[in-house]
What does this fold into?
Amino acid sequence: MTAEHIILHNGRIVTVDADFTIAEAVSIRGGRFETIGSSAQVLATATPDTRVIDLGGKTAIPGLFDSHLHLYMTALEAPRVPLIDCRSIADVQAAIAERAKTTPKGEWIIARMGWHESLLKENRLPTRDELDAAAPDNPVFVPRGGHVGSGNSAALQLAGISDDTVDPPGGLIVREIGSRRPTGLILESAVYMIRKVLPPPPAPAQEQAMLKDAMQLLNSYGIVATMDPGLNKHQIALYDRLRAAGDVTVRTDLMFRGYTLEDARVGAAITDFADDDLLRYVGVKFMLDGGVEGALHYDPYQIVPGEQNDPDYRGLSLLPAGGEPEFIEALKVVARAGLQVQTHGVGDHCIDTIVRCYLAAAEETPIRDLRWTVMHLHNPREEVFAKIRDGGILVTAQDQSVLLGANKVKWWGRPRAEWSTPLRRMIDEGLLVGGGTDAPILPIDPFICMWWMVTRKTLQGDCLGPDQAITPREALELYTINNARIMGVEDRRGSVEPGKLADLVVLSQDVLTVAPDDIRGTRALLTLLGGKVVHQDPAMA
It folds into this structure.
Protein backbone atom coordinates (compact mmCIF):
# COMPACT_ATOMS: atom_id res chain seq x y z
CA MET A 1 0.00 0.00 0.00
CA THR A 2 1.44 3.37 -1.04
CA ALA A 3 2.00 5.84 1.81
CA GLU A 4 -0.30 8.87 1.69
CA HIS A 5 1.16 11.80 -0.22
CA ILE A 6 0.13 15.29 0.92
CA ILE A 7 1.09 18.64 -0.57
CA LEU A 8 0.61 22.03 1.07
CA HIS A 9 1.31 24.85 -1.39
CA ASN A 10 0.76 28.54 -2.09
CA GLY A 11 1.88 29.42 1.40
CA ARG A 12 4.77 30.73 3.44
CA ILE A 13 6.54 27.71 4.94
CA VAL A 14 8.91 28.85 7.70
CA THR A 15 11.26 25.87 7.85
CA VAL A 16 13.47 26.94 10.82
CA ASP A 17 16.34 25.06 9.14
CA ALA A 18 19.94 26.20 9.52
CA ASP A 19 19.39 29.02 7.00
CA PHE A 20 15.88 29.82 8.23
CA THR A 21 14.62 29.17 4.70
CA ILE A 22 11.16 30.35 3.69
CA ALA A 23 9.50 28.09 1.11
CA GLU A 24 6.18 28.16 -0.73
CA ALA A 25 5.26 24.51 -0.47
CA VAL A 26 6.03 21.20 1.20
CA SER A 27 5.13 17.61 0.46
CA ILE A 28 4.65 14.86 3.03
CA ARG A 29 4.88 11.14 2.45
CA GLY A 30 4.67 8.38 5.02
CA GLY A 31 4.45 10.87 7.87
CA ARG A 32 7.69 12.66 6.98
CA PHE A 33 8.60 15.78 5.05
CA GLU A 34 9.72 14.92 1.54
CA THR A 35 10.08 17.89 -0.82
CA ILE A 36 10.34 21.55 0.19
CA GLY A 37 10.52 24.41 -2.27
CA SER A 38 8.43 26.47 -4.64
CA SER A 39 4.83 25.59 -5.35
CA ALA A 40 5.77 24.60 -8.91
CA GLN A 41 8.55 22.29 -7.70
CA VAL A 42 6.42 20.56 -5.11
CA LEU A 43 3.24 20.31 -7.21
CA ALA A 44 5.30 18.59 -9.90
CA THR A 45 5.58 15.60 -7.54
CA ALA A 46 1.79 15.18 -7.34
CA THR A 47 -0.01 12.08 -8.57
CA PRO A 48 -3.74 11.46 -8.95
CA ASP A 49 -3.82 10.12 -5.38
CA THR A 50 -2.06 13.13 -3.81
CA ARG A 51 -4.03 15.19 -1.30
CA VAL A 52 -3.41 18.84 -2.19
CA ILE A 53 -4.04 21.67 0.27
CA ASP A 54 -3.97 25.27 -0.96
CA LEU A 55 -2.77 27.45 1.93
CA GLY A 56 -4.03 30.62 0.27
CA GLY A 57 -0.93 32.54 1.32
CA LYS A 58 -1.08 31.46 4.98
CA THR A 59 2.04 30.85 7.05
CA ALA A 60 3.04 27.39 8.28
CA ILE A 61 5.69 26.64 10.89
CA PRO A 62 7.13 23.48 12.46
CA GLY A 63 4.88 21.89 15.06
CA LEU A 64 5.40 23.67 18.37
CA PHE A 65 7.33 22.08 21.25
CA ASP A 66 6.71 23.34 24.81
CA SER A 67 9.82 22.81 26.94
CA HIS A 68 8.00 22.52 30.27
CA LEU A 69 4.31 21.74 30.42
CA HIS A 70 2.61 19.72 33.15
CA LEU A 71 0.36 17.80 30.78
CA TYR A 72 -0.96 15.30 33.30
CA MET A 73 -1.74 18.17 35.68
CA THR A 74 -3.44 20.05 32.83
CA ALA A 75 -5.68 17.04 32.28
CA LEU A 76 -6.80 16.95 35.91
CA GLU A 77 -7.40 20.71 35.95
CA ALA A 78 -10.17 20.55 33.35
CA PRO A 79 -13.18 20.10 35.70
CA ARG A 80 -11.98 22.67 38.25
CA VAL A 81 -13.24 26.24 38.64
CA PRO A 82 -11.58 28.72 36.23
CA LEU A 83 -10.64 32.08 37.73
CA ILE A 84 -8.63 33.66 34.89
CA ASP A 85 -11.46 36.08 34.05
CA CYS A 86 -12.02 37.21 37.66
CA ARG A 87 -11.14 40.82 38.42
CA SER A 88 -12.10 41.09 42.09
CA ILE A 89 -12.46 39.00 45.23
CA ALA A 90 -16.21 39.26 44.67
CA ASP A 91 -15.77 37.65 41.24
CA VAL A 92 -13.81 34.80 42.82
CA GLN A 93 -16.49 34.36 45.45
CA ALA A 94 -19.18 34.32 42.77
CA ALA A 95 -17.35 31.63 40.78
CA ILE A 96 -16.92 29.48 43.90
CA ALA A 97 -20.51 30.05 44.98
CA GLU A 98 -21.79 29.06 41.55
CA ARG A 99 -19.90 25.76 41.75
CA ALA A 100 -21.20 25.23 45.29
CA LYS A 101 -24.76 25.14 43.91
CA THR A 102 -23.99 21.85 42.13
CA THR A 103 -21.52 20.39 44.64
CA PRO A 104 -22.87 18.16 47.44
CA LYS A 105 -22.23 19.38 50.97
CA GLY A 106 -18.88 18.29 52.33
CA GLU A 107 -17.33 17.70 48.90
CA TRP A 108 -14.32 19.69 47.70
CA ILE A 109 -14.45 22.72 45.44
CA ILE A 110 -11.08 23.31 43.77
CA ALA A 111 -10.08 26.17 41.49
CA ARG A 112 -7.71 25.95 38.55
CA MET A 113 -4.11 27.07 39.05
CA GLY A 114 -3.65 29.19 35.92
CA TRP A 115 -4.58 32.66 37.14
CA HIS A 116 -3.06 35.32 39.37
CA GLU A 117 -4.29 37.49 42.21
CA SER A 118 -2.70 40.58 40.67
CA LEU A 119 -5.52 40.46 38.12
CA LEU A 120 -7.88 41.27 41.00
CA LYS A 121 -8.43 44.86 42.09
CA GLU A 122 -7.50 43.84 45.65
CA ASN A 123 -4.19 42.37 44.39
CA ARG A 124 -4.34 39.45 46.82
CA LEU A 125 -5.68 35.94 47.28
CA PRO A 126 -9.04 35.45 49.00
CA THR A 127 -8.93 34.76 52.73
CA ARG A 128 -10.44 31.78 54.50
CA ASP A 129 -13.34 33.96 55.67
CA GLU A 130 -14.11 35.17 52.15
CA LEU A 131 -14.07 31.59 50.87
CA ASP A 132 -16.25 30.51 53.80
CA ALA A 133 -18.82 33.11 52.76
CA ALA A 134 -18.84 31.77 49.19
CA ALA A 135 -19.13 28.09 50.11
CA PRO A 136 -19.95 27.58 53.79
CA ASP A 137 -20.76 23.88 53.37
CA ASN A 138 -17.71 22.76 51.35
CA PRO A 139 -13.96 22.64 51.77
CA VAL A 140 -12.48 25.06 49.20
CA PHE A 141 -8.94 25.22 47.82
CA VAL A 142 -7.82 28.06 45.56
CA PRO A 143 -4.31 27.32 44.28
CA ARG A 144 -2.33 29.91 42.40
CA GLY A 145 0.28 28.01 40.49
CA GLY A 146 2.03 25.13 42.20
CA HIS A 147 3.58 27.05 45.10
CA VAL A 148 0.83 29.20 46.62
CA GLY A 149 -2.79 28.71 47.60
CA SER A 150 -5.64 29.68 49.88
CA GLY A 151 -8.08 27.46 51.72
CA ASN A 152 -11.27 28.08 53.60
CA SER A 153 -11.83 27.00 57.19
CA ALA A 154 -13.06 23.52 56.27
CA ALA A 155 -10.03 22.94 54.05
CA LEU A 156 -7.64 24.13 56.75
CA GLN A 157 -9.30 21.87 59.30
CA LEU A 158 -9.02 18.80 57.03
CA ALA A 159 -5.34 19.64 56.47
CA GLY A 160 -4.69 19.96 60.20
CA ILE A 161 -3.80 23.65 59.94
CA SER A 162 -4.72 25.60 63.07
CA ASP A 163 -3.40 28.35 65.31
CA ASP A 164 -1.03 25.85 66.88
CA THR A 165 0.35 24.31 63.68
CA VAL A 166 4.06 24.82 63.17
CA ASP A 167 5.22 25.90 59.71
CA PRO A 168 6.49 22.83 57.84
CA PRO A 169 10.12 22.80 56.62
CA GLY A 170 10.28 24.81 53.41
CA GLY A 171 6.79 26.25 53.89
CA LEU A 172 4.86 29.13 55.43
CA ILE A 173 1.39 29.39 56.95
CA VAL A 174 0.46 33.07 56.78
CA ARG A 175 -1.12 34.40 59.98
CA GLU A 176 -3.32 37.37 60.72
CA ILE A 177 -1.28 40.33 61.97
CA GLY A 178 -0.94 40.20 65.73
CA SER A 179 -2.44 36.72 65.91
CA ARG A 180 -1.64 33.05 65.28
CA ARG A 181 -4.87 32.55 63.32
CA PRO A 182 -4.12 31.39 59.74
CA THR A 183 -5.49 33.71 57.07
CA GLY A 184 -5.96 30.81 54.66
CA LEU A 185 -2.89 31.74 52.59
CA ILE A 186 -0.22 29.03 52.46
CA LEU A 187 3.13 29.02 50.68
CA GLU A 188 5.46 26.38 49.24
CA SER A 189 5.57 23.09 51.19
CA ALA A 190 2.63 24.22 53.35
CA VAL A 191 0.49 23.99 50.21
CA TYR A 192 1.01 20.22 50.27
CA MET A 193 -0.68 20.03 53.65
CA ILE A 194 -3.89 20.74 51.77
CA ARG A 195 -2.94 18.93 48.58
CA LYS A 196 -2.42 15.64 50.44
CA VAL A 197 -6.04 15.68 51.71
CA LEU A 198 -7.61 16.56 48.35
CA PRO A 199 -9.69 13.88 46.63
CA PRO A 200 -7.61 11.19 44.89
CA PRO A 201 -7.30 11.20 41.09
CA PRO A 202 -10.24 9.70 39.19
CA ALA A 203 -10.30 6.08 38.11
CA PRO A 204 -7.57 5.18 35.58
CA ALA A 205 -10.00 4.97 32.65
CA GLN A 206 -11.24 8.49 33.37
CA GLU A 207 -7.68 9.74 33.88
CA GLN A 208 -6.77 8.33 30.48
CA ALA A 209 -9.73 10.03 28.82
CA MET A 210 -8.84 13.33 30.48
CA LEU A 211 -5.21 13.04 29.33
CA LYS A 212 -6.37 12.39 25.77
CA ASP A 213 -8.57 15.50 25.93
CA ALA A 214 -5.65 17.56 27.29
CA MET A 215 -3.46 16.49 24.37
CA GLN A 216 -6.16 17.55 21.94
CA LEU A 217 -6.36 20.90 23.72
CA LEU A 218 -2.63 21.36 23.12
CA ASN A 219 -3.07 20.41 19.47
CA SER A 220 -5.61 23.24 19.14
CA TYR A 221 -2.77 25.65 19.97
CA GLY A 222 -0.38 24.06 17.46
CA ILE A 223 1.54 22.16 20.15
CA VAL A 224 2.65 18.69 19.08
CA ALA A 225 5.41 18.01 21.62
CA THR A 226 6.23 18.72 25.24
CA MET A 227 8.19 17.59 28.27
CA ASP A 228 6.06 16.67 31.28
CA PRO A 229 8.30 17.47 34.26
CA GLY A 230 7.86 15.48 37.41
CA LEU A 231 5.71 12.36 37.25
CA ASN A 232 5.31 9.29 39.42
CA LYS A 233 5.24 5.69 38.22
CA HIS A 234 1.45 5.57 38.04
CA GLN A 235 1.33 8.64 35.81
CA ILE A 236 4.09 7.32 33.55
CA ALA A 237 2.14 4.09 33.15
CA LEU A 238 -0.96 6.12 32.27
CA TYR A 239 0.85 7.62 29.29
CA ASP A 240 1.87 4.13 28.21
CA ARG A 241 -1.75 2.97 28.27
CA LEU A 242 -2.82 5.99 26.23
CA ARG A 243 -0.21 5.09 23.61
CA ALA A 244 -1.42 1.48 23.52
CA ALA A 245 -4.91 2.81 22.77
CA GLY A 246 -3.54 4.86 19.86
CA ASP A 247 -4.59 8.15 21.44
CA VAL A 248 -1.29 10.02 21.90
CA THR A 249 -1.38 13.23 19.85
CA VAL A 250 1.41 15.12 21.66
CA ARG A 251 4.94 13.71 21.55
CA THR A 252 5.80 13.69 25.25
CA ASP A 253 9.08 13.30 27.10
CA LEU A 254 8.46 11.99 30.60
CA MET A 255 10.52 12.82 33.68
CA PHE A 256 10.32 11.20 37.12
CA ARG A 257 10.00 13.68 40.00
CA GLY A 258 12.81 13.53 42.54
CA TYR A 259 13.90 15.28 45.72
CA THR A 260 16.24 12.79 47.40
CA LEU A 261 18.95 10.24 46.67
CA GLU A 262 16.38 7.46 47.02
CA ASP A 263 14.13 9.19 44.46
CA ALA A 264 17.09 9.32 42.08
CA ARG A 265 17.63 5.59 42.49
CA VAL A 266 13.98 4.90 41.73
CA GLY A 267 14.00 7.15 38.66
CA ALA A 268 17.27 5.72 37.35
CA ALA A 269 15.88 2.18 37.73
CA ILE A 270 13.05 2.80 35.26
CA THR A 271 14.60 0.91 32.36
CA ASP A 272 11.65 -0.96 30.87
CA PHE A 273 9.83 1.97 29.24
CA ALA A 274 9.63 1.49 25.45
CA ASP A 275 10.72 4.76 23.85
CA ASP A 276 9.41 5.75 20.44
CA ASP A 277 8.63 9.00 18.61
CA LEU A 278 5.46 9.52 20.66
CA LEU A 279 6.63 8.82 24.22
CA ARG A 280 10.08 8.66 25.82
CA TYR A 281 11.21 8.28 29.41
CA VAL A 282 14.15 10.68 29.60
CA GLY A 283 15.25 11.18 33.21
CA VAL A 284 14.65 12.86 36.56
CA LYS A 285 13.46 16.33 37.53
CA PHE A 286 14.62 17.81 40.84
CA MET A 287 13.26 20.78 42.82
CA LEU A 288 15.79 22.94 44.69
CA ASP A 289 13.83 26.07 45.57
CA GLY A 290 10.31 27.46 45.41
CA GLY A 291 8.44 29.78 43.09
CA VAL A 292 8.28 33.56 43.23
CA GLU A 293 7.50 33.58 46.94
CA GLY A 294 10.02 30.85 47.79
CA ALA A 295 12.91 31.38 45.39
CA LEU A 296 16.26 31.08 47.17
CA HIS A 297 18.08 34.41 46.86
CA TYR A 298 21.27 35.82 48.34
CA ASP A 299 19.62 39.16 49.12
CA PRO A 300 16.52 39.57 51.29
CA TYR A 301 13.02 39.90 49.91
CA GLN A 302 10.92 43.00 50.31
CA ILE A 303 8.42 43.22 53.14
CA VAL A 304 4.91 42.34 51.94
CA PRO A 305 2.57 43.30 54.80
CA GLY A 306 0.30 40.45 55.78
CA GLU A 307 2.16 38.02 53.54
CA GLN A 308 5.90 38.33 54.15
CA ASN A 309 6.94 40.20 57.27
CA ASP A 310 10.50 38.93 57.83
CA PRO A 311 13.14 41.54 56.84
CA ASP A 312 15.73 38.76 56.55
CA TYR A 313 13.64 36.39 54.43
CA ARG A 314 15.67 35.03 51.49
CA GLY A 315 13.45 32.22 50.22
CA LEU A 316 13.47 28.47 50.73
CA SER A 317 15.98 25.72 50.00
CA LEU A 318 14.51 22.38 48.93
CA LEU A 319 17.81 20.50 49.05
CA PRO A 320 17.38 16.99 50.49
CA ALA A 321 18.14 16.35 54.16
CA GLY A 322 21.73 15.46 53.27
CA GLY A 323 22.30 18.86 51.66
CA GLU A 324 24.53 19.35 48.64
CA PRO A 325 26.46 16.08 49.18
CA GLU A 326 23.21 14.07 48.91
CA PHE A 327 22.08 16.06 45.87
CA ILE A 328 25.43 15.50 44.13
CA GLU A 329 25.24 11.77 44.84
CA ALA A 330 21.70 11.73 43.44
CA LEU A 331 22.97 13.44 40.29
CA LYS A 332 25.73 10.86 39.95
CA VAL A 333 23.18 8.05 40.10
CA VAL A 334 21.21 9.58 37.22
CA ALA A 335 24.38 10.29 35.23
CA ARG A 336 25.53 6.67 35.55
CA ALA A 337 22.17 5.61 34.14
CA GLY A 338 22.77 7.82 31.09
CA LEU A 339 19.66 9.89 31.75
CA GLN A 340 18.86 13.58 31.58
CA VAL A 341 18.49 15.77 34.68
CA GLN A 342 16.44 18.95 34.73
CA THR A 343 16.34 21.01 37.92
CA HIS A 344 13.98 23.80 38.95
CA GLY A 345 16.01 26.91 39.73
CA VAL A 346 14.50 30.36 40.32
CA GLY A 347 16.60 32.37 42.79
CA ASP A 348 20.24 33.31 42.17
CA HIS A 349 21.48 31.32 45.19
CA CYS A 350 19.62 28.22 44.00
CA ILE A 351 20.87 28.55 40.41
CA ASP A 352 24.48 28.77 41.63
CA THR A 353 23.90 25.64 43.72
CA ILE A 354 22.49 23.69 40.77
CA VAL A 355 25.37 24.59 38.48
CA ARG A 356 27.97 23.85 41.15
CA CYS A 357 26.43 20.43 41.85
CA TYR A 358 26.04 19.57 38.15
CA LEU A 359 29.74 20.28 37.57
CA ALA A 360 30.70 18.26 40.64
CA ALA A 361 28.74 15.26 39.35
CA ALA A 362 30.32 15.70 35.91
CA GLU A 363 33.76 15.07 37.39
CA GLU A 364 32.77 11.40 37.65
CA THR A 365 30.48 11.02 34.59
CA PRO A 366 30.56 13.58 31.76
CA ILE A 367 27.14 15.19 31.35
CA ARG A 368 27.54 17.23 28.15
CA ASP A 369 25.93 14.52 25.96
CA LEU A 370 23.23 13.93 28.57
CA ARG A 371 21.81 17.42 27.98
CA TRP A 372 21.40 18.38 31.62
CA THR A 373 19.26 21.45 32.00
CA VAL A 374 18.41 24.23 34.45
CA MET A 375 14.69 25.00 34.36
CA HIS A 376 13.39 28.59 34.57
CA LEU A 377 16.67 30.44 35.36
CA HIS A 378 14.76 33.45 36.63
CA ASN A 379 17.48 35.38 38.44
CA PRO A 380 20.93 34.17 37.43
CA ARG A 381 23.97 36.11 38.56
CA GLU A 382 26.04 37.30 35.63
CA GLU A 383 28.98 35.16 36.80
CA VAL A 384 27.03 31.94 36.22
CA PHE A 385 26.49 32.29 32.46
CA ALA A 386 30.02 31.21 31.55
CA LYS A 387 29.82 28.25 33.91
CA ILE A 388 26.57 27.13 32.31
CA ARG A 389 27.89 27.55 28.76
CA ASP A 390 31.32 26.05 29.32
CA GLY A 391 29.89 23.18 31.36
CA GLY A 392 27.60 22.09 28.52
CA ILE A 393 24.51 22.87 30.60
CA LEU A 394 21.28 23.87 28.87
CA VAL A 395 18.38 26.13 29.88
CA THR A 396 14.61 26.10 29.48
CA ALA A 397 12.82 29.39 30.11
CA GLN A 398 9.10 29.93 30.48
CA ASP A 399 6.85 32.98 30.56
CA GLN A 400 6.07 33.00 34.29
CA SER A 401 6.28 36.79 34.30
CA VAL A 402 3.13 36.97 32.14
CA LEU A 403 1.10 36.25 35.29
CA LEU A 404 3.65 36.24 38.10
CA GLY A 405 5.51 39.44 37.20
CA ALA A 406 3.41 41.51 39.59
CA ASN A 407 4.46 39.33 42.51
CA LYS A 408 8.10 39.47 41.42
CA VAL A 409 7.89 43.25 41.74
CA LYS A 410 6.06 43.04 45.06
CA TRP A 411 8.24 40.36 46.68
CA TRP A 412 11.65 40.84 45.03
CA GLY A 413 11.66 44.52 44.13
CA ARG A 414 11.57 45.97 40.65
CA PRO A 415 15.27 45.57 39.73
CA ARG A 416 15.17 41.79 40.22
CA ALA A 417 11.79 41.58 38.48
CA GLU A 418 13.12 43.50 35.46
CA TRP A 419 16.14 41.18 35.18
CA SER A 420 14.12 38.02 35.70
CA THR A 421 14.39 35.46 32.86
CA PRO A 422 16.97 37.47 30.90
CA LEU A 423 16.43 35.84 27.50
CA ARG A 424 18.44 38.40 25.53
CA ARG A 425 21.45 37.95 27.77
CA MET A 426 21.15 34.15 27.80
CA ILE A 427 21.21 33.99 24.02
CA ASP A 428 23.99 36.56 23.70
CA GLU A 429 26.06 34.54 26.20
CA GLY A 430 25.81 31.54 23.86
CA LEU A 431 23.45 29.44 25.97
CA LEU A 432 21.13 26.95 24.31
CA VAL A 433 17.70 28.07 25.52
CA GLY A 434 14.31 26.45 24.98
CA GLY A 435 10.92 28.08 25.47
CA GLY A 436 7.65 27.08 27.07
CA THR A 437 4.86 27.97 29.46
CA ASP A 438 4.85 25.88 32.67
CA ALA A 439 1.12 25.33 32.00
CA PRO A 440 -1.29 24.92 33.68
CA ILE A 441 0.48 27.35 36.04
CA LEU A 442 0.45 29.78 33.08
CA PRO A 443 -1.82 29.88 30.02
CA ILE A 444 -1.04 27.06 27.56
CA ASP A 445 -1.21 29.42 24.60
CA PRO A 446 2.27 29.48 22.96
CA PHE A 447 1.52 32.74 21.22
CA ILE A 448 1.04 34.52 24.55
CA CYS A 449 4.46 33.15 25.48
CA MET A 450 6.04 34.37 22.23
CA TRP A 451 4.34 37.75 22.69
CA TRP A 452 5.98 38.01 26.12
CA MET A 453 9.38 36.97 24.73
CA VAL A 454 9.21 39.71 22.11
CA THR A 455 7.57 42.49 24.16
CA ARG A 456 8.28 41.50 27.82
CA LYS A 457 4.73 42.62 28.65
CA THR A 458 2.55 41.04 31.32
CA LEU A 459 -1.18 40.38 31.34
CA GLN A 460 -1.47 43.09 34.02
CA GLY A 461 -0.21 45.70 31.54
CA ASP A 462 3.31 46.06 32.93
CA CYS A 463 6.54 45.67 30.97
CA LEU A 464 9.43 44.02 32.81
CA GLY A 465 12.91 44.17 31.34
CA PRO A 466 12.31 45.36 27.77
CA ASP A 467 16.07 45.18 27.21
CA GLN A 468 15.78 41.39 27.60
CA ALA A 469 13.30 41.02 24.73
CA ILE A 470 14.23 38.80 21.79
CA THR A 471 13.18 38.79 18.13
CA PRO A 472 10.17 36.89 16.74
CA ARG A 473 12.57 34.61 14.85
CA GLU A 474 14.41 33.76 18.07
CA ALA A 475 11.13 33.16 19.88
CA LEU A 476 10.06 30.70 17.19
CA GLU A 477 13.43 28.96 17.37
CA LEU A 478 13.06 28.60 21.15
CA TYR A 479 9.69 26.90 20.60
CA THR A 480 10.87 24.53 17.86
CA ILE A 481 14.43 23.56 16.98
CA ASN A 482 15.97 24.67 20.29
CA ASN A 483 13.65 22.46 22.33
CA ALA A 484 14.35 19.59 19.95
CA ARG A 485 18.09 20.10 20.55
CA ILE A 486 17.66 20.22 24.32
CA MET A 487 15.76 16.94 24.24
CA GLY A 488 18.15 15.33 21.74
CA VAL A 489 15.68 14.86 18.87
CA GLU A 490 16.88 17.56 16.50
CA ASP A 491 17.73 14.92 13.89
CA ARG A 492 14.03 14.20 13.36
CA ARG A 493 11.99 17.06 14.80
CA GLY A 494 11.98 20.83 15.29
CA SER A 495 12.19 22.02 11.68
CA VAL A 496 10.67 21.42 8.25
CA GLU A 497 13.38 19.46 6.46
CA PRO A 498 13.36 16.37 4.22
CA GLY A 499 13.20 13.16 6.26
CA LYS A 500 12.02 14.77 9.50
CA LEU A 501 8.68 13.90 11.09
CA ALA A 502 5.92 15.89 9.43
CA ASP A 503 4.79 18.02 12.38
CA LEU A 504 3.39 21.28 11.04
CA VAL A 505 1.10 24.14 12.07
CA VAL A 506 -0.77 26.52 9.76
CA LEU A 507 -1.29 29.91 11.43
CA SER A 508 -3.94 32.60 11.25
CA GLN A 509 -1.17 35.19 10.76
CA ASP A 510 2.59 35.35 10.33
CA VAL A 511 4.18 35.70 13.79
CA LEU A 512 7.39 36.92 12.13
CA THR A 513 5.85 39.95 10.44
CA VAL A 514 2.84 41.09 12.48
CA ALA A 515 3.26 43.87 15.01
CA PRO A 516 4.77 42.45 18.22
CA ASP A 517 1.66 43.31 20.24
CA ASP A 518 -0.44 41.30 17.79
CA ILE A 519 1.50 38.04 18.19
CA ARG A 520 -0.68 36.99 21.14
CA GLY A 521 -3.73 36.94 18.86
CA THR A 522 -2.32 34.21 16.61
CA ARG A 523 -4.35 31.00 16.25
CA ALA A 524 -3.49 27.55 14.98
CA LEU A 525 -5.74 26.76 12.01
CA LEU A 526 -4.39 23.32 11.16
CA THR A 527 -2.10 21.06 13.18
CA LEU A 528 -0.38 18.02 11.70
CA LEU A 529 1.35 15.31 13.72
CA GLY A 530 3.37 13.01 11.51
CA GLY A 531 1.30 14.17 8.56
CA LYS A 532 -2.03 13.40 10.28
CA VAL A 533 -4.52 16.14 11.10
CA VAL A 534 -4.94 16.41 14.88
CA HIS A 535 -6.61 19.83 14.86
CA GLN A 536 -8.52 21.72 12.20
CA ASP A 537 -10.12 25.11 12.67
CA PRO A 538 -13.34 25.78 10.72
CA ALA A 539 -11.41 28.52 8.89
CA MET A 540 -9.37 25.76 7.21
CA ALA A 541 -12.39 23.76 6.07
Q: What stands out?
A: The CA atoms of residues 14 and 22 lie 5 Å apart. The mean pLDDT is 96.
